[in-house]
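Researcher: Going back to the complex we discussed earlier. I've cleaned up the inputs and rechecked each line, so this should be the final set. Can you rerun the prediction on the complete assembly and write out the structure?
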Amino acid sequence: MNAFASFVRKECIHILRDPRTMLIVLLMPVVLMMLFGFAISTEIKNIDVAAVATRYTTDVRRDLTALEHNPYVTFKGIIREGEVDAALRCGRCSAVVLFGRDGKRHIVLDASNSSLSASAAIYLRSILTADAAASALPVTTYMRHNPQLKSAYNFVPGVMGLIFILICALMTCVSVVREKESGTMEVLLVSPVRPVYVVLAKMIPYLALSLFNLATILLLSHYVLEMPVAGNLSVLLILCTLYIVLSLFLGLFVSTLAQSQMVALLICAMVMLVPMMMLSGMMFPVENLPPVLKQLTFIVPARWFNDAIRKVMVEGLGFVAIWKELSILFAMALALFVASIKKFKDRLE
Amino acid sequence: MKHTLPILIRKEVTQFRRNKVLPRIVVMMPLMLVLVLPLVTQMDVKNISVAFIDHDRSPLTLRMESHLAHSDYFRLCEPVGSFEEAEQMLDDGKVDLVVCIPEHFERDLTLGDPKPILLEANAVNATKGAQGMQYALQTIASAAMEKARERGAAIGTEQLLTVENRYNPTGNYRHFMLPALMIVLLILVCCFLPLLNIMTEKEHGTIEQINVTPVGRLEFILAKLIPYWLLAMVLLAVAMLLAWAVYGLLPAGAAALVFLAAFLFALCISGFAVTIANISDTMQQAIFVMFFFVMLFMLMSGLFTPIDSMPRWAQDITYAFPPRYVIDVFRSVYLKGTLFVELWFDFLMLTLLAVVFNLLATVTYKKQS
Amino acid sequence: MDNIITVSNLTKQFGSFTAVDHITFAVSRGEIFGFLGANGAGKTTAMRMLCGLSKPTSGSGSVAGYDLRTQGEQIKRHIGYMSQRFSLYEDLTVVENMELYGGIYGLSRREVSDRVDQLLTALQFADHRDDLVGSLPLGWKQKLAFMVATVHRPELVFLDEPTGGVDPITRRQFWDLIRAAAAQGTTIFVTTHYMDEAEYCHRISIMVDGQIRALDTPAALRARYGAETMEQVFYRLAREAKRGD
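Model: Rerun complete. Updated structure for the full complex:
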């Protein structure tokens, strides 16, 4: 195994000699977590609202005060009825409340973002009908597993999935293709070490990097984002390691298809990253996809990973609950590995 | 020596045509973006499965059940006996929401001392849980309101509130996403492709051969970028046509504004790409740095989540991000028919950033090391 | 005879490492000047400074009448360059590569096409004009790189290890090319680590550890060091070398 060890060492040296890439690879999960945790949100934190009012009855004044003092509303002032369209169009406000003569109120929304405007409508409605709320039904609500409605629970698995695929698949792929391009691959393949080991040697450093990133993500989720890592840590680690290994093999497989780095990168980006982001349930729920695409998600490893991770991290379930996902991921990894090795051997013959 | 520009451009075009993979990807891109992605980027929460446990079975609660059943948002599942059973189903993922009405609810409500209705939502997906909860509350409340009206009770002020959705009356989320996805197309063509192109020349050494010739920096950079700018405009036009043909989406405002903003944006990000290429040694490095920034841009520029929802410090950072402005222009012109003068700030910033990034690109290109 | 290259105390440092150490020499117009030395001696670095690809840390010089430090862009108009990696566009054809560089150096389309025909015939390349460069064997790429470097008939041509990795016959053919170009008045500045090629040059210099240890005609050097071949001259000089093989 001496030769194997020297291969691994060579790969490590390659990586360490490129501090810029290393920096980005190690920094990206941190930045993503911070972004998702603190900056990005789909919740409405602010609605710009203007009002049209000709008569200031007590009711109208009360409503205006409610709007002005609401923490999630920025009141943009009173405008004339004729200005409503222009105000919405140029983005000065997202909604205008028109107070009519007969006590009727009409809300005009900029519905160009339909999901936001739906929530905005609900929210404004609740401000303006505070009275009705008093006579509303008594209801107690519970948010299960996530009482504080932290969106972290949603995106942390997604970030993990993305980072691992990125680092493992992309970097392995580029690394192998680079050797192909510069001709050094042939030298390696001609050495006494079997091709399998040449290739495995390439993956070891990326495996290490990914595990390091995994630790970073878990630590950040726990201490900074205050997301409890509910489940069994060992289950989590096994799941993540399996997924990392799968990504490595995926990168390997793609590298057998590409002749130049440019092509390899384009394939990775188009065929891997974009579908991963879109179809894995990370950003957009899988249930809402049209049937054709829903079928497609079955072959996207990130989707299974996402499902399993949520079950483990948020719901605290164990092995048994995720056996289906584990077996699928394992099967995919195996298939990719076999296919890659076969393609490698073909090249030599 | 401006006449070298056409020669260099011709070389770029020849190389592009000879490449087997690139033209195919270029054709696939607008197709994928416009045809497939809008199907995916769906934020509406629909088909929430609800377990409705009714210990009262009064006309009021039956009305509530009926409202839930008839709502587009919900799917009532098989009747469940107890709350515990329903909670188990919640945990197993068989059900998203549980509504549990206590005994004698209607009677107690009229007497003024009701026990509360229990609503529990699976909030692992916080957005889905919250929205589902909201809709459920609304649906139940409207059922109660209806019943109250029938009884002749006082008409709540709820009655007098109407809502109008302007600019997207069908509430079509795809119409919201399509303009933004076209911008993703621009980023791919004007940012990644030139970057890969320059890095390939760097790695093959052909860039050194050019550095030894009298070809100036500006000419070299322009020759690389001009074909991609043209390509981007053509692909944009194709994407817009497809958007119209497939989704019936046409710009409400002037299409010329869309192209102008797109062009300025192309200038910005291609300048950025060249800058990254100039300071990178290997393709792998360049790609990673670029990917990092593109991800930042895409997540923070209002493409998927609103800028307004971000904290102040994050919003301030986005002022330096070109995509923020072009996304605003695209959406405003497409959906609201906004005019040029109303978008002056966006255009101003785009022009400014274009100048800055291209200045950076020329300054960082070193013919001599 | 005027000098087309003059260099005085030219130095290049990378951090604490001095790659080129205060070299001083001159090259006359029309001569074939061999820039010899072992790998790592500093030849390529020195040449890159003369071509305007690398900025000198200190020292001065002029190439083709233009100052090395301040008039780099003018220098480039008067020189041709062939790099160690024969940087040609692999996905363009032979003709397309030549037309590109012909155009870059300001030749009109007519001039370029004439020149292309001329060179292709002279080098018996005409059958391969529409072949992609990537499909050519190494020796042909070499010749093509040389043609590209001289398509605009520059006064001075820099060749960096042009005969690396090809068989002896091809190497000799290549030197026939070089001599033919010199006969027409082109000055040739060539680096190589093949000592036998030194015999083909008018004068040579030998670099060891970044410094010029010898500068003269091949015959004079052989006499001075009492050697029969340039290889022996080199061994005697390079025995003390700390860098390279």
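Model: Worth noting: Chain B touches chain A through 102 residues (CB under 8 Å).
Researcher: Good, that matches what I expected from the previous run.
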